Amino acid sequence: VLILALASLGCRQQMAVQPRVDPLESSAFFADGRSARAPVPGTVARGHLRDDVHLYFGQVAQPRGAGRASDERAALGATVSERTTQSEPPYAAVLPFPATKSVLQRGQERYLIYCVVCHGPLGDGDGKVVERGYTKPPSFRTDRSRGYERRGKVMALRDVPVGYLFDVITNGFGAMPDYASEVPTEDRWAIIAYIRALQAVELPTPQRSNLSGGETGK
Ligand code: HEC
Q1: How far apart (Å, rounded) are the C-alpha atoms in residues 165 and 145?
Q2: Which residues contact residue 169 at a Cβ distance below 8 angstroms, ignoring those fewer than 6 apart?
Q3: Range 185-190, long-range pairs (CB < 8 A, 24+ positions)
Q4: Is the pLDDT confidence value at 215 over 50?
Q5: Residue 47 CA, ligand 1 centroid: distance in Å
Q6: How far is the CA of 137 from the centre of ligand 1 (A)?
Q7: What is the distance in A from the centroid of ligand 1 to the CA of 49?
Q8: Greater confidence, 145 or 49?
Q9: Looking at the predicted structure, is the pLDDT value of residue 70 above 80?
Q10: Residue 118: CB within 6 Å of ligand 1?
Q11: Which end of the chain is more exposed for a tag (fewer CB within 10 A), N or C?
C-alpha cells in the first residue's frame, strides 16, 4: 500500500512540474529565441474567414475564377473617386439574412447611435451636426443617390441596392466617414434593414415627384 501511495505521489509531481512555457516566454530551443512559433503567413484566425461575399462585401458572389473574394476586397478598397468612376460592382439586391423584428430593433438602436446625428431621425438629412454646419446628407426617403449620380445614373436612394448602402457605410462616401470599425458587419446590415423600413413609409405626392425623372445634378 505504501509503495502504491508513493508511486502515485511521484506521478502527481511529474504532472505538476512538466516542461512547458508561459505565453511570450523566451526559449533557447528555437533560433529566434521565441518559445511560440509565428503563424504561417496568410493564417486566418478561427471565425475570421471573410469568405461570404454577400455578408462581408454586400455583393453577389462571382463564379469561381471570375472574381474571387480577394479581388472583390481590392475593388471595395479602391478610393472613392476610383469607385465612383468604375462601373457598378455586382451589388447584392437583398439582405444576407431576414429582416426579423429583432434585426429591425437592433438596426433602429444602432441607427440612433451612429447615423442620426447627421441623417436625422427619419433619414431626411437634418441631424444635429448638420444644424451646426456639417454637409447636409441627402434624404433617404426623398432624394436621389449622389453616388449613383457620380456614375451618371439617376436613382432614388429608395431604389439603390442594399449592397450599395453597405458599401457606403463600410467605405464612406464623399463627406461621410466610413463606419467599418465602429459598426460590425451584422449591425451594418441591421441598420440597412431599418433604413429600408424608414423608406417604406408612404410619402405625400409632392415629395414623391422629386424622385422620378428629371435632369441629373442639382
Ligand atoms: C458625420 C455625419 C454623418 C454620419 C454620422 C453618417 N453619415 Fe451618411 N452621409 C453623410 C453625408 C455628409 C453624406 C453626403 C456625402 C456627400 O454628398 O459628399 C452622407 C451620405 C450617405 C448616404 C447616401 C449616399 C448617396 O449615394 O447619396 C447613405 C446611404 C448614408 N450616408 C448612410 C449612412 C449610415 C447608414 C450611417 C450610420 C451608420 C451614416 N450614413 C452616418 C454624413 C454622415
Answers
A1: 10
A2: 178, 179, 180, 183, 188, 191, 192
A3: 185/55, 185/56, 186/97, 187/106, 187/107, 187/110, 189/55, 189/95, 189/96, 189/97, 189/103, 189/107, 189/162, 190/103, 190/104, 190/106, 190/107, 190/110
A4: no
A5: 30
A6: 6
A7: 28
A8: 145
A9: no
A10: yes
A11: N
Q: Closest Cα to residue 213, out of 167, 151, 159?
A: 159
Q: For residues 48 and 185, what is the distance between their CA atoms, to the nearest angstrom?
A: 12
Question: Side chain identity at 73, as an amino acid letter?
Answer: R
Report, in angstroms and rounded to the nearest whole number, the Rg of the chain calculated over CA atoms.
26
Instruction: Round the average pLDDT of the chain to a whole number and report it.
Output: 84
The x, y and z cell numbers of residue 63, run together, are: 463564379
Is residue 169 within 6 Å of ligand 1 at its C-beta? Answer: yes
CA angle 189, 146, 181 (to 5 degrees): 35
Q: What are 107's three cell numbers?
A: 438596426
Q: What's the one-letter identity of residue 173? A: F
Residue of the CA atom closest to atom 6 of ligand 1: 115
pLDDT at 59: 95
What is the per-residue pLDDT for 4?
59
Residues 6+ apart with CB under 8 A from 126: 120, 136
